[in-house]
Amino acid sequence: MAFQSDLLWQNDPKWAAEKLGHGPQTIKEWGCLMTSLCMVTNGYGYKETPSTFNKKMKDAGGFQGPMVIPSMVPSVFPGVVFQDYMDCEKVSAPISRIDQHLAAGNPAVIQVDWSSAPGAQSHWVVAYAREGDDYLILDPYMYTGDAPGKKLKMLDRYKYQGKDLSKAITGVVFLTGTKGAGGKPADPPKKDKVPVPADPLIVYAAADLAVRAEPNVSGYLYERLKEDDKVTILEDKATAKAKVGQYDKWLQAQAPSGQQGYVAAWFTALEKGKAGETTPPPTQTSGTPPAPATGTGLVVTPTQEGV
Fold it and tell me: Do 108 and 174 touch, CB atoms closer than 8 A?
């Protein structure tokens, strides 16, 4: 049986103007991936709206700025499983894998190009079934004439990278889950305290820097720090100093509250006001969409990165 979920729209007036995650952008402007993930979550037994999903993910550290982190969904909504993300901008999309995933009753959140402008203007939709040479989708952006129950095919709407599915899809998030899921978020993992060095390295945090249980973006979020909070590093001073400001490096650290965990080194600095300056730009860029009346979707930044 194909995956089922009620259709939700990011540009629904009930929540369109709400800020997305920690960023200045609104759900209407950049909320296609977040709304797609919300629909997936509801298909496994939850009853969220883009508004409630946005708040719960934000409170749990599921955003970096306005960018939602798909791998964080399971920690907020038990029973939903994040399997994988594949960037397909430079390689063919794994159509056979997507077909098998959908045939098993699971959704795939897929990235498409919503505009005929040069380059890829990305938008995210939920694919739930294969039909002929196309995928049936739930589109989180409401176009003129859209209504619940209307059958939508991906290539009928998003064909700017061609009519070949393997080229039209520029990214895939694979998720699965348990029907009827719905429980409380996981308890914080318990870790043994690490002794603080006699002469520790002190670094300064970027705004919203996360203290996580593990050195990766899907690790349990203990807390978020304020800009220029002092962070005590628990590692060898010389080794840790070489990591500060370096992308994809992590530091074992202690927050001002005393909470220990890991922080993203690329969002730390040795001086106040400098944290985050060496962070590379997102791997996918955002743009400004034309007015909704043109029938175009909204741009969103994929979210495998984030801390």
Answer: yes
| Strand (E) or helix (H) holding 126 | strand 122-131
Residue 236: which domain range?
A: 202-269
Give, in degrees to the nearest 5, the angle at Cα 112 between 106 and 115: 155
168 and 214 together in one domain: no
Domain count for the chain? 2
**Continuous H helices in 83-136:** 95-103
Q: What is the pLDDT of residues 219-277, one digit of tens each?
A: 777 888 889 999 999 999 999 999 999 988 999 999 999 999 999 999 999 999 988 76
Whether 179 and 220 map to the same domain: the answer is no
SS3 18: coil
**Torsion angle of C-alpha atoms 82, 84, 90, 91, degrees rounded to 10:** -130
Among 19, 104, 22, residue whose Cα is nearest residue 62: 22
Helix 50-59 / helix 32-43 crossing angle, nearest 10 deg: 100
35 and 179, same domain (yes or no): yes
